[in-house]
Amino acid sequence: MMQLIKLFQNAGWTITFASPARLGEHKEDLLQYGIKEQNIALNDSSFDGFIEALQPSLVIFDRFMMEEQFGWRVEQFAPKALRILNTEDLHSLRACRQQIIKDYLKTSPTEIDLAPLDLTNQAWLFEKMANTDIAKREIAAIFRCDLTLMISEFEMQLLQAQFKVPKQQLYYLPFMYEPINTQSLPSFEERQHFVTIGNFRHEPNWDAVLWLKESIWPKIRQQLPKAELHIYGAYPPPKATALHNPKQGFLIKGWAEDAFEVIQNARVLLAPLRFGAGVKGKLAEAMLNGTPSVTTLIGCESMTQHNSASDNTSNNWPGIIANNTDDFVNASVTLYQDNQAWLNKQVIGFKNASQLYVNTELNKNSSKVDFIKHIDQTALNLTNHRNQNFIGAMLNHHQHKSTKYMAQWIEAKNK
After folding, report:
1. Rg of the chain, C-alpha, whole Å
2. Strand partners of residue 268
3. Average pLDDT, whole number, for the chain?
4. Taking Cα atoms as reference points, which of 379, 303, 386, 403 lies closest to residue 348?
5. Lowest mean pLDDT among 201-210, 279-288, 399-408
6. To 5 degrees, how large is the angle CA 407–CA 411–CA 412?
7. How large a percentage of the chain has pLDDT more than 70?
8. CA-CA distance, 307 to 330, in Å (whole number)?
């Protein structure tokens, strides 16, 4: 979100950030960037006056839940505004994979091996997702919006091939990091320990921590008794801090003031993700900071050039891909001890980051200029663009009417 905000500011746009969320302890100070903030309420007509007076040229909904709440109000009171959905990742895909893992654990007492589970088979995933409420809600929001920002090529393919979302409704926009000076990064010898990082409230991250604690880390520690695992992430709950054990080298660190600093001082980043969606910020930042990683087929999805659903080998990954406990342990120990292998993977990471996630001339996939041009062009032809999206018009007509009346009923009830 901050990358998008800076992108629009650099293009000369005036930005208003409106949110119904409570202010968090790690909130970004938007005022220092000259951005006006507006508190808005759910199921409250006060938003109508706010958006009607503002009359924005463009509205970005941060994930489909915000589009459900406020999309119909924007359509009614700022009809000329280009409506964009920022998915971050497909929530319905993540929820589907999470349920698959839960069901597997119920029927199998043994360790999970992710590779045979077919978690990247798009036709099979579609069958699983199509019957869920969350998929129906999320895909409906995508159709209702004029444009949807996608961070994963795998999910772009899934939406077009299986859910029949027209290509012109989607725009691929991966991370947009600023370049860093790779020459100043710590060397292999100057780094120590392992790191994992991610918000504890995010289910895939919490599941990864549990897998590390219960199965992976004890076996790594047996081979590397002096190594430590430093676990960073916002909002660690008591159940997470209870796992802190210095004797085992399993250290719950909590919030990282500077994520880049903790990643670049570690020798290897661990991301044992058994389910999830989108592309992973922790793994992109590991590439940027020259830190090889060990992850799963879920972790590496859509994170390399020419990455396909069937390409789950470690050949072009800046680290090693492992899909069960023993393979993960062996990969982690190998990368930690083998200087030359580590350096080779670091080079792959730098190259991959420059091609996909850094705003340089090499990165043809996330051109800031092209994105702004695309928005301008879509806005100029908005009527024609919407006329080509009959399903979206139909959903706006029916779904938003029901959402509207439900919101008005809740507002009346609250009064």
Report:
1. 22
2. 194
3. 91
4. 303
5. 399-408
6. 120
7. 94
8. 24
List, in sequence order, every residue forming a beta bridge with 252; answer none if it has no partner. Answer: 231
Sheet holding 58-62, edge to edge: 58-62, 82-86, 147-150, 170-172
Calpha distance 403→73 (Å, rounded): 10
Contact 250, 230 (CB under 8 A): no
Residues for the chain: how many in total?
415
Separation CA 171–CA 11 (nearest Å): 18
Give the strand pairing for 293-295 and 147-150: unpaired
Please give the Cα distance from 62 to 47 (Å, whole number).
16
| Cβ atoms 217, 251 nearer than 8 A | no
Q: Of all helices (H) and strands (E), which one includes residue 239?
A: helix 238-241
Report which listed range, 18-27, 333-342, 368-377, is most confident: 333-342
Beta bridge partners of 86: 62, 149
Enumerate the β-bridge partners of residue 19: 39
Structure tokens of 110? Answer: 């043994």
Q: What CA–CA distance (Å, rounded) separates 290 from 182?
A: 7
- The Cα 87–Cα 75 span in angstroms is 19
Block residue for tokens 């091996």: 113
Predicted confidence (pLDDT) per residue in 4-23, tens digit: 999 999 899 999 999 999 88
This prediction has a pTM of 0.91
- 205: tokens are 């991250």
Say how far apart CA 375 and CA 388 lie, in whole Å. 17
Average pLDDT over residues 212-231: 97
Q: Which residues pair with 269 in a beta bridge?
A: 195, 293
266 Cβ neighbours under 8 A, 6+ residues apart: 191, 192, 193, 194, 195, 230, 291
